[in-house]
Design a protein that fits this description.
heterodimer; A: 221 residues; mainly alpha; 7 helices; B: 220 residues
Amino acid sequence: MRKIWWKFLASGLLIYIVVFGFIGDVPRQPILNETIRNVYFHVPMWFSMMSLMISSLIYSIKYLNGGKIQDDVYAVEFANVAIVFGILGFLTGCIWGNYTWGDPLPKDPKIIAVEVGLLIYSAYFVLRGSFEDEQKKARLSAVYNIFAFASFMPLVWILPRLTDSLHPGNGGNPAFGKYDMDSSMRMVFYPAVIAWILIGVWITSLRIRLKLLNNHLQENI
Amino acid sequence: MQEIKNLILKDIILEWRQKYAFNGMVLYVVSTVFMCYISFKLKTNTIEPITWNTLFWIIILFSAVNSITKSFIQEKAGRQLYYYQIAKPSSIILAKIIYNFLLMIFLGFLGFLIYSIFMGNMVENIPLYLIALTLGALGFSASLTLIAGIASKSDNTSGLMAVLSFPILLPMLTMLIKLSKNAMDGLDMSVSYDEIMVISGIDLIVIALSYMLFPYLWKS
């Protein structure tokens, strides 16, 4: 019970978000209108993707330092779930963009950045697939993971700020935090970020346990 | 320092002994430029400045990937074991990066010369363009050397090399294309300080990471 309290927290918050995300009050903005509710789902996807990628990075560094195969399993599964959240964020963004910008895939540096990010992490899995030996696979993919993360970061954080972007907070557009969200929206938005991150960690922990059990079974056969 | 110098000299001597590899790279650049010449310049006789620029960087990218792939598969496993025993991994990676940097500078400048002869020179601020080329050569050589190290451990080296390196080089490439576009338009150097800073920053990050991560690769 002590260890699973955060799962109750995550599911409770998620129910709260779904209910209040759809019936709560939102400020009426030109163009955005009711689609602003997507901010509870689209933006937290990126927050969770980022935190899962950072966790994956940390476990890769840990693996290189300690050499325990368990850390490698953690890194892979965090990256796996990060990709899923990336795709979900991409899709919610497409739907949102369709109604506000009139185009599901407009020319925007952040969209390009995310596409490249998904490519990088797919390459990570291709790399893993091409080795048989477990330790070798783990070591090389950990090196690539750290390297890829470091070259992915400037793409997401620096480049969109240098060029014009449709996204708020870049290229002179004001960020959501400043103008668009009022306090009632913030009451839903911040819990949403926490809830989605926790859900991501939960899914990852289930996958990790499954993988470790599988490894254990195979060792005993 | 002495160790790094010796390793670079070793690479240069090896390259000089097997000239066919080096000639192959030069020929690669020349024939690609010639192909672009035939398919663009000869057919339509017009080429947009943006296409001109992008095409050049794609040629440079491909020749970089092609020539740096061999960094670690050129030499036999036995000899690599020998280097492992006599040299520090950090000096090996630095030597390889510096050597590949020199190689890329040479190929890039040669490519630029041939490209501007065949396709016509559209650059107004040539020093700035050459700065972009140098920064690009540095970033390409640093990141591709590490990735060549990773890819050389697998059976499908050249395929893996392209898959692993293209997404990683993309941020750098977009910045480089932007900087060299500024140079083509003949803008003053001071306009492009932002881009130069960002590219140098990315270069520094990549070099530092290759330096730190390579010892782990070298062990296996």
